Each structure stands twice: as structure tokens, then as C-alpha cells.
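Q: Given only this backbone (294 positions), what sequence would you predict?
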């Protein structure tokens, strides 16, 4: 059975928003004051099915709410909020810091590259940085990442990846020395969702059926849809389509592949079918989307 509290907590697609991931990038970076300031420095409890946060508090104080429990925080500090964890924030007015949001494909890539250290991204925690050897480097990396994210230039994607990977290593090192909060136990439904998302990541280019993916999990398509709706706020098909759309946007933005080549790379039998699929999800044709990004 599902937890009544869990059902009552909204599932956000981004930091305090319910709309879909708005960018072809695998990460999103913004100043904390940009999002929290207009809301009286308060972000209500919510969760993400496929996103995680790395927050860097340079100066200021506040409270991090994890699974209904408040934890005082003060800068300099790094906060790790994994997927599926119910969380909220109350920041002191004029808190100086950054909120970095990572999409599931990037989370998987980083955790794989970091091997055992990657477990730091699956445990909610906050790490004070005062008198820590990583403090100055973390500050510099986050500042550079925000600048690159805000002012696109040639080579933007690889440098963003390099910066976030370096930041991830430093956060993982800090996590090795001190873990404050352990990731709460998840039920079997959460496990099925995580495994489904991993299968989507592996096979989305093959246009798999939901029935075939559910069979790999040892459950029915109907039960998989019920789990996805309850835990992720979307059907299994919608989660699959969201991943296909993210990759389509990335290929149209960061490569010179033709629309036909993008369609073929994503498993569409006909470019016209891909164009209809893309327009149904964005309101734009692939060509118009590419022109707008340029």
C-alpha cells in the first residue's frame, strides 16, 4: 500500500515547478534567490521521480526538510537531495547560493564514472564546508558552471560535463568523510520504478513496448502503469516518451544531424512519424525547434 503522505506530496519536474524539463541540457543551474526569493524564500515539500539536486549555500542560513524532518543548514554548505526523497526548503532572506538540478541520464553517468563514490548521490545529506579542503574549489567550480550555463559559448556542453564531474568528485570525497542522513528505505514499488527507469535508459532508442519492459521486471504492464502514476506522476509510456524527447532535443541542439538522421537514431521508422511525435510534445516541428535554439 502507498503512504498517504507520499500521495499528498506533489511531484515536481524541476525545482518548484510542475512543467516538464524545459531544456535539452542534462542539468539546470540557477541562483537560489531567483527561485526562492519570489516565494518568500520558501519551497514547499515535494519530490522528483527523475531529478536530483545539488545545492551550494555560500552564505546564509535556513532549514532543509527531508521526509518531514527539519535540519538546520548554514553556509558554506553542500546539500544532496536524491530522486524520490521528499524535501523542502526555508532559506534566510538574501541567502547566497546556487541550485543545480541533474536529470536521470546524467545522474546515472556520474554514478557510473565515480563507481563506489557514486553512492553519494543516492543518500540525502548536507555537508558543511567550513575549514574543509574542498571549499574554495567547490565555490570556484559552481561559479564557473553557473556562468557557462547562463552564457552559452562554443564547447558549452563538454565544459558543463567537465565541471559537473569535477564537482561530483569533490562532493563524493566530502561524503566519504561525513554522512549525516541515510536514504530512507524504499518499498518494492520504488525498486520497480528505479529498475524501469534504468531499462528506459538502456532501450529507449529501440522503441520498446511497455509490455516488453514490464515483462523484464516480472510484472504486468497495468501494474507498471499504476506504479509510475503513483510514484512519478506519469504513465510508463509518458516516462518513455519524455526520455525520447529529451534525446531528440539534445541531438537537434548539439549536433548537425538531419531530422531524418535523428529520427533513425531514435528508432522511428519514418521521419514523418518522428516529426508528428515531436510536434505533438512541443508544439514545434523539429526544424522550427532547431531554429529557435540557434
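A: Predicted residues:
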Amino acid at each position: 500500500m502507498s503512504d498517504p503522505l507520499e500521495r499528498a506530496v506533489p511531484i515536481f519536474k524541476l525545482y518548484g515547478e510542475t512543467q516538464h524539463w524545459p531544456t535539452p541540457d542534462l542539468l539546470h543551474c540557477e541562483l537560489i534567490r531567483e527561485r526562492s526569493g519570489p516565494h518568500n524564500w520558501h519551497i514547499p515539500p515535494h519530490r522528483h521521480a527523475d531529478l536530483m539536486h545539488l545545492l551550494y549555500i555560500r552564505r546564509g542560513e535556513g532549514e532543509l526538510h527531508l521526509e518531514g524532518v527539519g535540519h538546520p543548514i548554514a553556509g558554506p554548505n553542500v546539500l544532496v537531495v536524491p530522486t524520490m526523497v521528499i524535501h523542502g526548503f526555508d532559506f534566510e532572506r538574501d541567502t547566497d547560493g546556487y541550485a543545480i538540478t541533474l536529470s536521470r541520464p546524467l545522474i546515472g553517468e556520474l554514478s557510473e564514472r565515480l563507481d563506489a563514490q557514486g553512492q553519494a548521490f543516492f543518500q540525502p545529506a548536507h555537508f558543511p564546508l567550513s575549514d574543509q579542503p574542498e571549499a574554495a574549489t567547490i565555490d570556484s567550480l559552481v561559479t564557473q558552471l553557473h556562468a557557462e550555463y547562463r552564457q552559452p559559448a562554443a564547447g558549452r556542453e563538454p565544459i558543463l560535463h567537465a565541471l559537473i564531474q569535477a564537482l561530483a568528485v569533490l562532493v563524493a570525497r566530502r561524503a566519504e568523510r561525513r554522512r549525516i542522513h541515510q536514504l530512507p528505505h524504499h518499498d518494492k514499488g520504488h525498486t520497480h520504478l528505479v529498475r524501469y527507469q534504468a531499462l528506459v535508459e538502456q532501450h529507449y532508442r529501440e522503441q520498446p513496448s511497455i509490455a516488453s519492459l514490464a515483462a523484464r521486471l516480472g510484472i504486468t504492464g497495468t501494474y507498471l502503469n499504476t506504479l509510475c502514476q503513483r510514484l512519478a506522476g506519469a504513465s510508463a509510456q509518458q516516462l518513455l516518451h519524455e526520455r525520447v524527447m529529451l534525446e531528440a532535443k539534445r541531438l537537434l541542439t548539439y549536433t548537425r544531424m538531419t531530422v531524418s538522421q535523428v529520427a533513425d537514431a531514435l528508432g522511428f521508422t519514418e521521419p514523418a512519424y518522428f516529426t508528428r511525435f515531436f510536434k505533438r510534445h512541443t508544439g514545434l516541428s523539429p526544424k522550427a525547434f532547431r531554429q529557435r535554439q540557434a
